[in-house]
Design a protein that fits this description.
The complex is a heterodimer of chains A (470) and B (323). In chain A, strand 7, helix 19 and strand 8 form a beta-alpha-beta unit. In chain A, helix 4 runs antiparallel to helix 11. By secondary structure, chain A is of the alpha/beta class. Chain A has 20 helices and 8 strands. Chain B is of the alpha/beta class and 323 residues long. Chain B has a 5-stranded parallel beta sheet, with helices on both faces. In chain B, strands 3-4 form a two-stranded antiparallel sheet. The chains are: A alpha/beta (470), B alpha/beta (323).
Chain lengths: 470, 323
Amino acid sequence: MDDKIVEFGHLLRENGLKVSVAENMDTFAALGLVGVYDKQLLKDTLRATFVKRQVDIPVYDELFDMFFTGLGEVIKAAAASTMQAMDMTEEEFQEFLEQLEDALQNMDQELSDLARALLTNNTGQLEKMLQEAAQQSNLQDIQRSFQEGQFANALAQMMGFGNIQQELQTLKDALQQAGLSPEQIEQLSQYIDQRLQDLAHMIRSYVRAELEKKDSELRDQQKMRSLADKSFYYLSEDEIRKMKEAVTKLAQRLKHIIAIRRKRAKRGRLDLQRTLRKNLQYGGVPFNIILDVKKKEKPQVVILCDVSDSVRNVSRFMLQFVYSVQDLYSKVRSFIFVADIGDVTKLFEDNDVHQAIDLALRGNFINIYAHSDFGRAFKTFHRDYLSIINKRTTVLVLGDARNNYNLPHDWVIRDLQQKAKQVIWLNPESRLTWGFGDSEMDRYAPYCDLVEECRNLNQLYRVIDHLVTA
Amino acid sequence: MFESVDDVVSRLSDQKYICSRQIATVVYLASQLRKPILVEGPAGVGKTELAKVVAGAMDCKLLRLQCYEGLDEAKALYEWEYAKQLLYTQILKDKISEVLEGAATLKEAVERIGRQDSVFFSERFILPRPLLQAISADHPLVLLIDEIDKSDSEFEAFLLEVLSDFQVSVPELGTIQAQQIPVVVLTSNNAREMSDALKRRCLHLFIDFPSQEQELEIVQLKVPGIAAQLANQVVEVVQSIRKLDLKKVPSISETLDWAKALTLLNVHRLEEAQVNETLNTILKYEGDVRKAEAELKEYISRQKAKVETSATSQEQDDKDLLH
């Protein structure tokens, strides 16, 4: 049983739960108290010691049922199917088994352990043999569903499936000479065939159960992890939905980290002057200590998002991310552009983030089906909105800088850089392609304080982190 | 001390707390293994209450430490009573000058004062906060650390040390070892994820909203005078409201408030007028109320239809009898 618990802990770990040695030790200590005989109690106990997050509870429940009802149930189900096939009730079946055992003892034929266990339906013995065979054929290494057949074969071989087939055939022949009535012989050989099928079935179910254990959550987990590294260009509908969640989570984490950093930065040294002044009322005896508080101003952000076809997904996450951590800035103004430029700040004030993004990208503000013209958009911005830029503003431009060979008007960015605290350009294209074809990245780049490739969520996270801390 | 899981269930129910097997198992394990329990779950499912009833069931004192942002060691563990120390030095000025009398040099004077250090940094001047109280107590007790998610990460790290060793060191006094290990209950509303290190040291318990039967049991236990039919309806309505997409779903305590309010108003069966008047006991946002009203209307009309059909069938029966 100890091995089984450790193995179960291992299985949980593979499925994303954090199970360390400490958890294992707790579990054994707890099981020493409550025992392992009451299944519900076992489940509750293991849940208390192994599961530490609410989100893991459904995974745990599923895995527990899978793990602790595995093999025994499979074997019992096989016996039940035999019973059904032979059209017997449970008592009849028991009686039949007893008779069979007597008959086998009377016959001088040597039977292997497996054949004996199988014919007499010895559940414990069968379970043990299956487990041993599984260990020898490394069943625990199974990973993918296409390996199912291969492992089933290996397991069958390990159990000596070929031998037992032969053995049972000779047994059937021996029955003919044992002087039984034709009906009995008929019944017995039917039973033997049935059991042989059962064994094959058991092996298959066992392998499948083992595979399911590995499979279920693991894949989802891997998907989520790799999602952060996947380029925005290649997301499917479903992944976009998942990505929204990931962005929310990441934003939450960032918020938390920043809050700690801010607090740490705030706590200053002893402010002698103010301490003395404050404590004059106590005759200069320092009852209350005053520390200086460093003021750190929150950044103001102006976002210019290219929402042309090629980068719309990136813009979506960018906007979501920026607005999810909105309280980290003092002010956010956001604009979207293709060839025209539109102010969408109000949208985000009035609506929930996702709604606002959908509204912004629907095309009511600007024509989103035009050809990208960065130059024109920038020029319009310069004309209408330059006054919102001041020394504390960070300008964040998101776009691939593919200008369709229009005039780039890079002087706008130069002007912006002079007026603003910093200009950051995020390009969702791979760095290698910048400056080729109609990409004007090289013209804009000299006027930006930071130019970053921003192709996936992790890169986006780094940029935002830089933005709120720098 | 609890003897078994069943013992926990029965003793908690003596304290008027209805708990699932899961809760009882964790409480039993915690009391035996001397490990803290980290309780998580939505607001108002009885996380804090659990600590209280455990204290009641074990017949011992409950110490409560309410966490908030900015809570630090001084507020949680101990503090030197600076003002008292100052006051004493002022009052004892004469005595101090006596001690200092004849000191030739400044160095000697400091030396002499230094020898008296232990007078001022002794247990007389220490102000024990809940954690130190829990550790230095000589009788068993339950320590409730409420809403740990509201505290800062630094405090959480500090708590780790206390919870794993059950000892604290006060530099001036030395290390204080716990005489007995208290049962510790930490509650969290999941405002933030707790660190893995803290979780590793705790048994984890997640309490969700109770099932319909359990909630009914709770209502009947906590609101003694309630009509059976009303209790049934209240629980049914609350359970269905919880399924709506609300800003804040009603918790058990709100169900109880509502049941109490309706009993006070002498209601025996849910009617639309009273429901609308009292709905603000379970729902705390205007938007939520509007959403729930539609659901409730439907529920009440359904109930009415049910009552009427049963009434008409009754009539039918009577008529049949007359024939």
